[in-house]
Amino acid sequence: FVSENRALVDEYVDVHVNPHLVKRGYYELTAGMLATELARFIYPPVEEKIKHLPAIAGTGDRSNAPEFEQYKRIAKQMKGLTEEDLKKIAEVVDHEAYFWKFMDGKGIIEELLLLSGNLKRHRLLVDSIYPEVEEKQEKALRASLPHVKSVVLPNGIRFNTIDIELFAPKFSYPSPGKLGGLIHDHFKEKYGENSPILTLAYGPDFAVIRASDGMGEYNFDLNMIIPKLQELLPAAGIEGGGHSFAGSIKFFEGMRKEVLEEFAKQVVKLRKA
Amino acid sequence: FVSENRALVDEYVDVHVNPHLVKRGYYELTAGMLATELARFIYPPVEEKIKHLPAIAGTGDRSNAPEFEQYKRIAKQMKGLTEEDLKKIAEVVDHEAYFWKFMDGKGIIEELLLLSGNLKRHRLLVDSIYPEVEEKQEKALRASLPHVKSVVLPNGIRFNTIDIELFAPKFSYPSPGKLGGLIHDHFKEKYGENSPILTLAYGPDFAVIRASDGMGEYNFDLNMIIPKLQELLPAAGIEGGGHSFAGSIKFFEGMRKEVLEEFAKQVVKLRKA
Amino acid sequence: FVSENRALVDEYVDVHVNPHLVKRGYYELTAGMLATELARFIYPPVEEKIKHLPAIAGTGDRSNAPEFEQYKRIAKQMKGLTEEDLKKIAEVVDHEAYFWKFMDGKGIIEELLLLSGNLKRHRLLVDSIYPEVEEKQEKALRASLPHVKSVVLPNGIRFNTIDIELFAPKFSYPSPGKLGGLIHDHFKEKYGENSPILTLAYGPDFAVIRASDGMGEYNFDLNMIIPKLQELLPAAGIEGGGHSFAGSIKFFEGMRKEVLEEFAKQVVKLRKA
Question: Are both A66 and A169 inside the same structural domain?
Answer without folding.
Answer: no
